[in-house]
Amino acid sequence: MFSFLERATRQGFALLASQNVKSVFCKCSMPIAMLGLIVLAGHSFQQTIVQAGESPNIILILTDDQGWSQLSKTMDPKVKEAQSDYLETPNMTRLADEGMRFVSGYSPAPLCTPTRRCILCGTTTARSGGEFKSDWVPADHWTIPKALKSANPNYRCAHFGKWGEQMISTPEECGYDSSDGETGNITGGMPKTFGDKNHNTGPPHYIVDEDPKLTNSVTSRAIDFMKESHHADHPFYVQVSYYAQHLSVVTTKKMLAKYKKKGQPDRQYTQAWAAMMEELDNGVGALLDAVRTMNLSDNTYIFFTADNGGRGTVPGGDEELAPTNLPLTGAKHSLYEGGIRVPFIARGPGIQPGSISRTPVAGYDFLPTFYDLIGGDKAAIPQDVDGVSFLPLLRGRDDAFERPQGMLFFHRPQRLYSAVRNDQYKLFIHWLRNGKPRSVSLFDVRANPTEEGHDLMKERPEIAESMQESLMSYLESVDAEMPQKIDPKQQKRNRKKN
Questions:
Q1: Ramachandran region of residue 435, left (φ > 0), alpha (ψ -120 to 50) or beta?
Q2: Which residues form the domain of 42?
């Protein structure tokens, strides 16, 4: 019915645009009354198209060093222990309840700056670099704001909070209209001197009663940008890159007092760290409230994730308690699940509240997904964008989602690790310095995300071989850095930075 109305309406409008009314009636074979009905229906159809075609607003919330299980709600209902009974994150929970949780959501890297570079450009670390320093120049490539503006020049784009260390390009060079500049860990409160080289000594926390970790000011600037853009009739994209939960641990006296009353934490993080998490959650809540207050909920998508998994050690944490990333193995810096599986949530028009997706996705999928959301031409996406739009998953159409080779790739040769994940399995490679595998492990991470005691190499050798071949083929195709090319002195310098 609607396709008929559309065709008929277009025919009528074309005649009306080129002829006078009398000649239209003479040339049109349908009765005048029917034409009038079609025109009225067509007017309604056109209004529907305009409303459906309104460019959506997009908000990306990126937290720092927040593990998959470091919320008060589990990312996976099947893994009940993947949540904390001590932490309080009601706003992150609200976002999850109102949207879709991606059980197998990954950061592109187990380290902050390469993840931010990958999100910005839609690339894997194998292509754009897996450490702070890289030869990849984001401004020379497609970025999220460039992609959005190429599809609709009316978009305004902003980045507030942590940009990243040694990103080479500025936010403005990458297409942002507004930003906090080339900010990094020190901007967010990390002291220049923080104990030993691993930042694991020194004060367990700092008290800052005004704007700890800059969470409040980053949130306020993002909300102001949203209001200004909306009032000027500009669709907007804003990335809110919080400095929490990255070291150092900074909170207010009032929030710390609350958690001291709660007693001992349930993991190896501290009371002050838990207090900092609730303050971060309050920032998320302020963003959600602003979208509702501005009546933008029906046309705004909100995405939430972290730049890598949680740290293995929080200064002052009780090592007798459970690991911070329980039940996952590993932590920040590693390619085990604890280092790269992170909270991953999406909310917006057409997304079923309280829904779950078990299809693996990664932060480098954001660029093509956002571009797809606003109707961008997929044929225009450059070949060096590795990500894939997961818009079909947001619509509940898993059968329409397809990823080349069906795999996610993770590569950190400086630490001698690589990994590849398909729908069910994950292959983990530990390299020798000569570029040959030292060890290879295969895990069924869909059934067992902990990666403990379930190496399937002997049981599924054909699967392991196929996944390793796919990884090696991909690394070669992007001319990825391999262990034997790494300068040991540079590797040592990289380790000192975080």
A1: left
A2: 2-51
The helices-and-strands tally (H runs, E runs) of the chain is 15, 16
Whether the CB-CB separation of 139 and 169 falls below 8 Å is answered with yes
Q: pLDDT per residue over 336-379, tens digit each?
A: 999 999 999 999 999 999 999 999 999 999 999 999 999 999 99
Residues 388 and 246 reside in one and the same domain: yes
Task: Return d(Cα 187, Cα 155) in angstroms, integer.
Answer: 28
* 101 neighbors 357 (Cβ within 8 angstroms): yes
Residue 186 CB-half CA count within 13 A: 8
Question: CA 364, CA 407: separation in Å to the nearest integer?
Answer: 13
Distance CA 171, CA 153 (A): 17
Both 33 and 107 in a single domain? no
Token output for 124: 């894997």
| pLDDT tens digits, 271-286 | 999 999 999 999 999 9
Say what the alpha-carbon torsion angle 301, 368, 177, 348 is, to the nearest 10 degrees. 0
Instruction: State pLDDT tens for residues 175-203.
Output: 999 999 999 998 988 765 444 444 444 56
Q: Evaluate the CA torsion angle 430, 436, 439, 443 in order and state its sign.
A: positive
Q: Which residue has the tokens 């990825």?
A: 480
